[in-house]
Specification:
CATH topology of the largest domain: Glutathione S-transferase Yfyf (Class Pi), Chain A, domain 2
Shape: globular
Oligomer: single chain
CATH class of the largest domain: Mainly Alpha
Number of strands: 4
Bound molecules: glutathione
């Protein structure tokens, strides 16, 4: 059976939990990271020299880096569904995964850590606000892409929706000001209707 190491409140773990849920894969999850520790042990570092979560064990094949894990599982267990067979559709899906990490996650992380993981008295509100505005502007790009299609890379859910869906869910869950993004909001509602999203992503923030 697949095994995954990682705490459920990590955005990078959420990506993999949602992916495994969509693929209907049975798995065992082992708590690791933050208050659970584990990631600093020699045994864990031997599996994942990055000392972070998530890590998976697929029948002896150890893999870390969340987007890579999502791509691997989608190709192995979801070819034609989460992983498009057509090269151009797959590149489109891949592009949104890379975009979510390269363009969105940096400023998003500063808002999330500021508003969720930092106690109110210690928050640098000017810094959070600067990053909130930058994140909102970045999300305009996804808003435009979702104007013409129900999912980020076309007419059905693909791996391209997974990292973005995890970030957008947290963005929508935080007590912050958000600009009107009707297409993004409708897409998020479509994701919330999926049992695998509810189980893997729509879980407590802390
Ligand atoms: N690029 C890595 C980043 C992994 C990462 O930074 N994970 C965070 C949680 S989201 C982590 O392990 N933090 C330390 C901890 O939980 O102890 C990936 O996508 O898997």
């Amino acid at each position: 059976m697949l095994r995954i190491w990682g705490r459920v409140n990590s955005v990078n773990v959420k990506k993999v939990l949602w992916c495994m849920g969509e693929l209907g894969l049975p798995f065992e999850r082992i708590d690791a990271g933050m208050e659970h520790g584990v990631v600093g042990t020699p045994e864990y570092i031997a599996m994942n020299p990055n000392s972070r979560v998530p890590t998976i064990d697929d029948d002896g094949f150890m893999l870390w880096e969340s987007n890579t894990i999502v791509r691997y599982l989608s190709l192995k267990y979801g070819l034609g569904t989460l992983c498009p067979e057509d090269a151009r559709q797959r590149a489109d899906s891949d592009r949104w995964m890379d975009w979510s990490t390269a363009q969105l996650s940096g400023t998003f992380r500063e808002v999330f850590w500021g508003m969720v993981r930092t106690e109110p008295a210690k928050r640098d509100m000017a810094f959070i606000e600067k990053n909130r505005q930058a994140t909102a502007k970045t999300l305009d790009t996804a808003e435009r892409a979702l104007a013409s299609q129900p999912f980020i890379a076309g007419d059905h859910l693909t791996m391209g929706d997974i990292p973005l869906g995890c970030y957008v869910h947290l963005w929508m869950s935080m007590p912050i000001e958000r600009p009107e993004h009707p297409n993004l909001t409708a897409w998020h509602k479509r994701l919330l209707a999926r049992p695998a999203f509810t189980a893997g992503v729509n879980t407590p923030l802390t």
